[in-house]
Design brief:
Elements lengths: L2 H14 L12 E7 L4 E10 L2 E9 L3 H14 L4 H15 L6 H4 L12 H24 L3 E6 L4
Parallel strand pairs: 1-4
Antiparallel strand pairs: 1-2, 2-3
Helix pairs in contact: 1-2, 2-5, 3-5
FE2/S2 (inorganic) cluster (FES) binds next to helix 2 and helix 5.
Length: about 160
């Protein structure tokens, strides 16, 4: 199977069977993210125990790219510290903006690199990541539960 087909399958699999989809009671971090280009919105919920992400969920509407990216993100950040999660945000955003990426670090997320060919869709792929980053930044700044808002506008 060609690599492009494999990547397409990964994206469709996460879109049709999203992992960690749903809401969460009393999360430590909640962020409502929006992509002003299309009006799609997606919320992320994070639970922390002793500084590690023990649970993460997302809900929202959006295209296959935004939904699959959020699904893959939730899988990959579970078990990470906030700084580790932010490191992954940086690597993913760098890949989406054309930097070389490694499968060791990004795993299934590599499937989204084809989106780079369609600049308007890059914000679809980064929507959940921009939201996560904003929520983590606000949490680390305040050291208490946060409800944040994020937008891909400045990306
Ligand atoms: Fe709205 Fe992709 S078209 S997030």
């Amino acid at each position: 199977m060609a690599l492009d087909d494999l990547y397409r399958e990964v994206i469709l699999d996460h879109y049709s069977h999203p992992r960690n989809k749903g809401t969460m009671d009393d999360p430590d971090i909640k962020v409502e993210g929006a992509n002003p280009l299309c009006g799609d919105e997606l919320s992320i919920f994070v639970r922390l125990v002793h500084g590690k992400i023990t649970d993460v969920k997302f809900v929202g509407r959006g295209c296959s790219i935004s939904q699959s990216s959020a699904s893959m993100m939730t899988q990959q950040i579970k078990g990470k510290t906030l700084d580790e999660a932010k490191g992954l945000v940086g690597k993913f955003k760098a890949m989406m903006h054309g930097e070389p990426a490694s499968e060791d670090e990004l795993g299934d997320l590599m499937a989204l690199q084809g989106v780079r060919k369609f600049p308007v869709r890059i914000k679809c792929a980064t929507l959940s990541w921009v939201a996560l980053e904003q929520g983590v930044d606000e949490f680390q700044g305040s050291h208490q539960k946060v409800v944040a808002k994020a937008s891909t506008e400045a990306e």
